[in-house]
Amino acid sequence: MVCMHFGQVANFKTNSNIPIEKFAIAINSNLKKSILIQSAKEMDEKFHSRLSCKRKTYRYVINHGEIGTAIYRNLETYIPKKLNVDKMKEAIRYFEGEHDFKAFKASGTSAKSSVRTIYKAEIIEKENDRIWIELTGNGFLYNMVRIIAGTLVEVGLGKIEPKEIKDIIGKKERKNAGKTLPPQGLYLVQVEYDT
C-alpha cells in the first residue's frame, strides 16, 4: 500500500542533548531511505500532532489517459476511461461545508461522529491527463477521501449526476456513494495548526 505524506507531523518527548537545529539530521541518519525528517521544532508540552490539528489537506491523483504508466503505478490511480472533468468540478462543490459524511466512511470506523467540515474542495487538471482531487477540512473519516474520489469518478463516467451528490450526502447511506478507490494516489499534503 502506498500513501504519500508530504505534510505529516509527529511529536514525541525526549531528554536528548542534541540541539534542536541538528535533530532532523540526527534522526535521518537512523531512518530508512523512504522516510525523511525535514525539520524539527520544540513545541509546548500540550501540543499533540494529531489532536492539535485544525485543518488537513489531502490530494488524490488520478491518471485518466489512454495508456497508464509503469513508473507512477504506485503513485496514482489509473482509470482507463476519459472522465468528464467539468461534471466532476461541478459535483465537488457539494462537498464543501459542514455535513454528516456517514455515506463516505468505511464500515467499522470508530469515530463517534461523522460530521466534518470541508473548507475547500477542488479538481485541478494537470498535464498528461492527470486530475488532482484536493480536499481541505477539519478532519476526515477513515477512507473518506478515497470514497469521495470514487464518487467523483462515478460522476466523471456519467453514472452519477453532479446534483445527486447533495442527496447522497443527505441520505447518509454508504451504498449510495461510489467505490473506495485504491490507496495509490492518496497524499496527505498539509497539516495546519494555530501555533
Give a brief description.
The chain has 195 residues and is an alpha/beta fold. The protein is 19% helix and 23% strand.
Which homologous superfamily in CATH is the superfamily? Pseudouridine synthase I, catalytic domain, C-terminal subdomain
Structural class: alpha/beta
Span of the ends, CA to CA: 32 Å
CATH class membership? Alpha Beta
Domain count: 1
CATH architecture label name: 2-Layer Sandwich
Low-confidence stretches: none
Provide the CATH topology. Alpha-Beta Plaits
How would you explain this protein's 3D organization?
With 195 residues, the protein is an alpha/beta fold. It has one domain (55-192): Alpha-Beta Plaits, CATH 3.30.70. The chain is built from four helices and seven strands, in the order βαββαβββααβ. A hairpin with a 3-residue loop joins strand 5 (115-126) and strand 6 (130-137). Helix 2 (85-92) crosses helix 3 (144-156). The protein is globular and about 60 Å long. It starts with a strand and ends with a strand. The mean pLDDT is 89.
Task: Detail the topology: elements first, then pairings.
Elements: E1 4-5, H1 20-28, E2 55-63, E3 77-78, H2 85-92, E4 97-100, E5 115-126, E6 130-137, H3 144-156, H4 164-171, E7 186-192
Parallel strand pairs: 1-7, 2-3
Antiparallel strand pairs: 2-6, 2-7, 4-5, 5-6
